[in-house]
User: What shape does this take?
Amino acid sequence: MKSRLFSGVQPTGNLHIGNYLGALKNFVRLQSSYESIFCIVDLHAITIYQEPVQLRAKNREIAGLFLAAGIDPKLSSIIVQSQVAAHAELAWMLTCVTPIGWLYRMTQFKAKSETIREKSDTQDSIGDGLLQYPVLMAADILLYQAKVVPVGDDQAQHRELTRDIAQRFTSLYGETFVMPETSLPSVGARIMGLDEPDKKMSKSATGAGHAVALLDEPSLIKKKIMRATTDSNPAVDFDTMGPGVANLLAIYQAFDECSDDTMRERFAGMRYGDLKKTVAEKTIEHIEPFQKRYREMMADPAYLDGILKAGAERVQPIAAATVQLVKERMGLYTASR
Ligand code: TRP
Assistant: This one.
């Protein structure tokens, strides 16, 4: 029996090469070793206001990007969170065992509520959902009794909290959940912002030259990479290079999958203009066929809907069994047998 793997991606912002090299590529690599569920977490997305038409389109876009990246719907289930009602159902039950102080302590909650407060935009308020966000994430994971939860380091605290919530549930109601593991089976590349190489590349950053989106035109990809921040050296020096140059090299290496030795041979002494051109070419070489697959996927809406429906149907029994068990443990109503 394979262990179960669960991960989620929010249908917000534009997925970029950092998401591809850090997460998607990793998902593809892991999918044959685990029984994998990849979830498009639209219920998480609405913790911050989303324009409905856009959100609906984003759900499909992410599904298309998953498929284009090589997630194989025969091996893995791709689902949209709101398709499976049990996510929200279990989240409520877990909310009731989660001390509110744990949630106020979450770094992401603090950061997001701070941003909203600063913007004081009328459409955005610090909704209760923002506080409950990690509980819903715990529900995603525990619902499927997932053992392996690949996430970036920004989500590691939420994964830890999931364990705490599970433990607390156990102490109140008895053994119920598989405990998710803390460590990753393998870690994808950590790609930094092109304009700020000391910050992880982000979907929500606003700088025009910050990220290369997976759906950017090749000419734009080139332009963004050519403008990437480097340092005051004229050419690649592996011993003294700054984070910008290291990041460009990391992008190249993650696409090419070559060894450190090969990297040194290819790039030592290369002038930055040539380095950028080479990295841009490598990126486009990988992204162009990816975009072609994406467009093929999106040209057939019925195919995409079919994949999502099949995914939901496959995971539904697992979700239902967990909810049933949790209800029994908690004394909630279940028909007498
Ligand atoms: N919060 C995660 C993120 O923003 C997405 C997510 C939701 C998730 N539920 C999950 C990731 C469960 C892993 C497991 O990246």
